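Extended Data, record Nucleoside transporter
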Amino acid sequence: MSTLSLKLRLFVMMALQVAVWGAWAPKLFPYMGMLGFDAGQQGLVGTCWGIASIVGIFFSNQFADRRFAAERFLAGSHAIGGLALLGVAFSTTFGTFFTCFLIYSLVYVPTLSVSNTMAFANLEKPSDFGTVRSGGTVGWIMASWPFVFLLGAQADASEVRSIFLVAAAISFAMAVFSLTLPPTPPKTSESVDKLAWRRAIGLLRTPVIAVLFVVTFIDSIVHNGYFVLSDAYLTNRVGIAGNLSMLVLSLGQVAEIITMLVLGRVLARLGWRTTMIVGIMGHAARFLAFAFLADSIPAIIAVQLLHGICYAFFFATVYIFVDEAFPTDVRSSAQGLFNLLILGAGNVVASFAFPALVSSLTDANGVTDYSKVFLVPAGLATLGALILLLAFRPATPGPDRKLETA
């Protein structure tokens, strides 16, 4: 297999992998509201992702990596995940919806790390991973397009459930495609360091890492809150048609691609702390725009482009910092530890806190005071930026200068 063909296959793998997620994520919470699930029930569904993140990290590192070839693990997981998504699509009661979504989460979340493993194991140069991983961003964008045609401007639950049908179709496609990927055998027991997690957690006693851990938790709540709140806000308050809201939100992923291309140069010039502060304040700026510019559709559409700054300048920078700050033999576990905040803990808190916040600020006529709603995540983002400004003191101001030309 030529290098170009291999990269293309891995790119498509990432596109399908993330498209499964992107098909349902923006409309999950509005859809649960349509089914009549209250804020507490919505929060419980949100915990599925957190539970799966915790289980998935240890399952992947201590069992799946040593028992299954990566391509077969991906195929089996996505086949089961597709069936679970069909169950979610046709569930109208909370019990069955929660059960099916939990099953899906448990089999899908581990595939996020396994697909990364697949890519790194087959790329000659680790530096090529960024190009391959950009397929995931493209997949998220493309997953939003079918709903322009599948949903009406005032889509109800019977239409919106198609988010899970589309996700299931992509999941089945990923299951089949995985079997065409290069054979990637399981790791040997000797190659898995069982103490790496313990040592990675131990390094949290280092002040600079502890500060970053706290700020990452805060920003992960804000980041996940964006996905909890934004679709309902666009359709209910701004007045964007239900079949176009996901397309509007996908502009953020377009900006993410562009921002990732300049991240190396920005980091080389601004350094760790300033780049991260800019990323977090991107969240604050976006939510303040949501709070006070809701009557301007062009402004709300334009502000979606800040998503690239929010993601690349903070979360991608965190991943790069962790790769430099932690010893080589615990880097994988350290990345998983921070990923646990982003996909797990932050997701769980956001899933409970923001539906409850919306409920408390919605009057008897069903009108939500979004101006007050969005001041909360804007304030949290500002708090995170202040903590970085006052307490984050890394040993080096920025990464190796070679990133400037990356």
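Summary. The chain has two domains: 1-192, 195-406.
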